[in-house]
Write a structure and sequence with these properties.
Structural class: mainly alpha
Oligomer: single chain
CATH topology of the largest domain: Four Helix Bundle (Hemerythrin (Met), subunit A)
Helix content: 55-70%
CATH superfamily of the largest domain: GntR ligand-binding domain-like
Number of strands: 3
Strand content: under 5%
């Protein structure tokens, strides 16, 4: 086997490990602050240390893992200020991405979004089911966009904030749940009407409301650094 083949094999294995760890972080298997040990990942995924190191470097680049030299790696913890900054970015970037996508969504794609919105309304207090369907709803609504960088950036921001979105949804009262469902249906209705501007407006408010509610739950975030 040539050196090129070895690098290709390690790169493929690193991508697979990164994907599995990324899924674990997003799904709550690895909560913020969890220690990430190379030897544990190598054993868990049947990989050597080289692809595991590649995976950690990739996840550090994505903002999902914090690496401290000579100490180790941990699942990143956001401060409230950092999370608010990311949500403010999402509040502006995701309507823009939806604006790229909406004119290219087929009637079938919009109908599927409507079906997803209906399914979300039926999950009740099942946090895992809500998060899975909610993620599918929003990312599919952006799926027709033809962008060089914006879609990837939005995906990264979603992943970084996923653990905090989970904590937020788990704490919902019935009114919060109902409002989220209504906003999903309003986005679908605007897309059906071809009113991209209205869909963008509802989406921005949807994200803004999450940001404001998260700000009322400072205990789920990392402490702010001392000045």
């Amino acid at each position: 086997m040539s050196a090129t083949d070895v690098r290709s094999r390690d790169g493929d294995a690193g991508a697979r490990v990164a994907e599995r760890v990324r899924e674990g972080i997003v799904q709550g298997t690895f909560p913020p602050g969890t220690r990430i040990r190379q030897e544990d990942l190598a054993e868990q995924f049947g990989a050597s240390r080289v692809p595991v190191r590649e995976a950690i470097r990739q996840l550090e680049y994505e903002g999902l893992i914090t690496v401290v030299p000579n100490s180790g790696a941990w699942v990143a913890r956001l401060t409230l200020a950092e999370c608010e900054e990311i949500y403010r970015m999402r509040e502006r970037l995701e309507p823009l991405l939806l604006g790229y996508s909406a004119p290219l969504l087929t009637s079938q794609a919009i109908a599927e979004l409507g079906a997803l919105a209906a399914r979300i309304s039926q999950v009740g207090a099942d946090t895992d089911a809500f998060l899975e369907l909610d993620t599918a709803f929003h990312l599919r609504s952006y799926g027709a966009a033809r962008t060089a960088h914006l879609g990837e950036l939005v995906g990264r921001l979603w992943n970084i904030t996923a653990p905090y979105r989970r904590a937020y949804v788990a704490s919902w009262a019935e009114d919060s749940r109902r409002i989220a469902h209504e906003e999903h249906h309003l986005i679908v209705a605007a897309l059906q009407d071809g009113d991209t501007e209205e869909a963008e407006r509802v989406l921005a408010g949807h994200i803004r409301r999450t940001r404001r509610q998260l700000g009322r739950n400072p205990g789920i975030f990392a402490p702010e650094p001392l000045s």
